[in-house]
Write a structure and sequence with these properties.
Layout (H helix, E strand, L loop, with lengths): L5 H37 L5 H17 L4 H4 L4 H20 L3 H21 L2 H21 L6 H53 L8 H15 L2 E10 L4 E4 L3 E3 L2 E3 L5 E3 L5 H8 L3 E3 L10 H6 L4 E8 L2 E11 L6 H66 L9 H31 L8 E4 H10 L4 H4 E6 L4 E4 L1 H18 L5 E8 L2 E7 L22 H7 L5 H11 L3 E6 L5 E8 L8 H7 L1
Parallel strand pairs: 10-12
Antiparallel strand pairs: 1-2, 1-3, 1-8, 2-5, 3-4, 6-7, 7-8, 9-11, 12-13, 13-15, 14-15
């Protein structure tokens, strides 16, 4: 930042000089009163020197009191007025010095004049006034016929010079501090302006979520700051080793779409040079031979300023601002563009990352949808022929059609079991697909817990001797889809029987205020704490070797979780005291219902 100029220093000191001048005018009235009082006391008021001096000074002080000194000191007019008033005062004091009765009063007033001069007058004017006062002290006695020996003049003259030099030194130091304060103020104002621009540039992140929507606003703001008509951004393409123009280009407040355009970094050019060197540059005279200036020649610009876009010591591209509305670009314009290029690069890099992440997310969503659709279609296509196969196997297994050969019967039974297993797998895949697509039908009903749970458990082979159903309180009910609840309980109880064989299984249901919890408790090996959340993920199984011997696809618990959440509930897993796992389903409760006779008997 350049230092303040003399005119700026004058402006900074104008307030101080104006205040000093107004106080001096007030002191002028006191001076007039003091001289008037002393003249009356000495009886010399009617003399021409006294009367003329008082009238002249009174008119001068009165005129000075009407001046707008803040405005006057911003120009040379203030110095002229100060010189005129000081000349009148010095002349009046010289006249008063001709009277012996007032001589002792005049000399101290000379000190006041020099102090006033040092504080208010300019450098040259102050020394002119100092010379005038010294001359009046030395030579005016000769004019009145009362010359003094040179030895008597040494002390008064030295005293006047010391006061003059000291006052001026203090004023000069104050002026220097004022200039430094002005420079600091200008620096703060420049920084404030820079922060405002940086904030405005950074705020383009909120304009849009893609380069196409945010780029015109970003480049447009920078272009308006620099009074430019054209602005564009080129980003580095590592694969092609080129600078690719990002569409659209900003031109006079409008976004101009451009086709794919890139600059080969191996080719010479102003823009390539800025990118490779990492240093901004100002270019002028581009319109003289446009064919020699590549892209800028094609754009028809006359002058341009180019700055690199850097993020974390890496140059990601360049920003070009061209055709200033008035005159050519300067080094100051380049400095401003470089200061704005930093946050602009961060905005562009962040937008590019966001756009890439969004595109990747869309591709992943599309792949997931395609996978789900594929599973759904394949499952539907497999279920139809499989139903026919199972039906045919059931028909063949009828006594009148069953083969006599024992080996044939065992093969038929095996085929029936594997077909049933395959049907269960297909149903699980369809259910998982519906849960993922959020297309699972849900038909909630008010259900009596005791009746429903005992019916479900009774469907499971060997569950009657292993599973115990307990419902608290009597007549507890819940609101749920009966098919979804059946599948949840079947999966959990079958898992408990499979992985905790020959151990007691407890199915405990309890209503607490507006919620119902259904817990399936086993006393098997349990699940490690660090793996309790992963078991609800699809196709997840623990201890693969053991699972393979037990069978299973890893879809059961993920389906249980999806079904519970589809009914507004949740599932949690915890450790059973003494060993084992407890799966707890939480579902909304239904209005209280009357307990059935079966519930009453079971509770008793």
């Amino acid at each position: 930042m350049p230092p303040s100029t003399p005119s700026q220093s004058r402006l900074a000191l104008s307030g101080f000089r104006a205040r000093a001048m107004r106080r001096t005018v007030k002191l002028g009235w006191l001076l007039i009163a003091a001289v008037l009082f002393l003249a009356l006391r000495e009886g010399v008021l009617t003399s021409v020197p006294v009367a003329g001096s008082l009238i002249t000074v009174a008119i001068t002080v009165g005129a000075m009191s009407q001046v707008d000194w803040e405005q006057a000191f911003t120009t040379i007019r203030g110095d002229v007025l100060v010189w005129s008033g000081a000349t009148v005062v010095i002349a009046a004091l010289s006249l008063l010095a001709s009277l012996p009765e007032l001589n002792e009063l005049v000399f101290p007033l000379y000190f006041g004049v020099l102090m006033f001069s040092g504080a208010v007058a300019g450098e040259i004017l102050h020394w002119v006034m100092t010379a005038s006062v010294v001359a009046a002290v030395v030579f005016m006695p000769y004019a009145y016929g009362d010359p003094r020996p040179p030895g008597e003049l040494v002390v008064p003259v030295l005293s006047l010079l010391i006061v003059s030099v000291a006052t001026r030194a203090l004023t000069r130091e104050f002026a220097s501090e004022s200039r430094r304060g002005l420079d600091h103020l200008r620096e703060l104002q420049d920084r404030e302006e820079d922060f405002k621009r940086l904030y405005e540039v950074s705020r383009t992140m909120a304009v849009g979520d893609s380069l196409q929507t945010a780029l015109p606003e970003l480049v447009g703001r920078i272009g308006r700051y620099l009074n430019a008509e054209v602005g564009l951004v080129l980003l580095y393409n590592a694969g092609r080793r080129s600078l690719d123009v990002v569409s659209p280009i900003w031109t006079s407040g409008h976004a101009l779409e451009v086709a794919d355009y890139r600059l080969n970094l191996r080719a010479p050019g102003e823009i390539q040079k800025v990118f490779l060197s990492g240093k901004g540059a100002v270019f002028s005279g581009l319109g003289d031979h446009p064919e020699q200036h590549g892209l800028m020649g094609e754009l028809g610009v006359r002058t341009a300023v180019v700055a690199p876009l850097r993020v974390e010591h890496q140059t990601i591209g360049v920003i070009v601002v061209a055709d200033r509305t008035s005159g050519d670009f300067t080094r100051d314009d380049l400095d401003e563009l470089v200061s704005l290029a930093g946050p602009a690069a961060l905005v562009l890099a962040q937008l590019e990352r966001y756009q890439q992440a969004a595109e990747t997310g869309k591709r992943m969503e599309e792949l997931a949808r395609m996978k789900t659709d594929f599973v759904s279609v394949v499952s539907h296509e497999l279920r139809t022929p499989l139903t026919s196969i199972i039906g045919s196997l059931d028909t063949i297994a009828r006594p009148e059609l069953s083969p006599e050969n024992r080996a044939a019967k065992e093969l038929l039974a095996t085929a029936r079991r594997q077909a049933t297993r395959l049907r269960r797998l297909i149903e699980d895949l369809l259910m998982a697909s519906q849960i993922e697509n959020r297309s699972l039908p849900n038909h909630p009903q008010n259900l009596l817990l005791g009746t429903v749970l005992r019916e479900i458990v009774s469907e499971i082979p060997h569950a009657d001797r292993l599973a115990v159903v307990e419902v608290r309180p009597l007549g507890a009910s819940l609101k749920a889809d009966p098919d979804h609840l059946r599948r949840i309980v079947l999966n959990l109880v079958q898992n408990a029987i499979k992985y905790a064989p020959n151990s007691q299984i407890e199915v405990v249901a309890e209503r607490i205020e507006h919620e119902v919890t259904v817990s399936v408790i086993d006393h098997g090996p349990g699940i490690p704490p660090e793996e309790r959340q992963t078991v609800f993920e699809r196709f997840t199984q623990l201890e693969p070797s053991q699972i393979r011997s037990q069978g299973g696809t890893g879809l059961g618990l993920s389906i249980v979780k999806g079904l519970a959440e589809s009914m507004g509930g949740s599932i949690q897993i915890s450790e059973t005291p003494g060993g084992g796992s407890t799966f707890t389903i939480t579902l909304p409760a239904a209005p209280r219902m009357v307990a059935t006779l079966e519930d009453s008997v079971a509770m008793s």
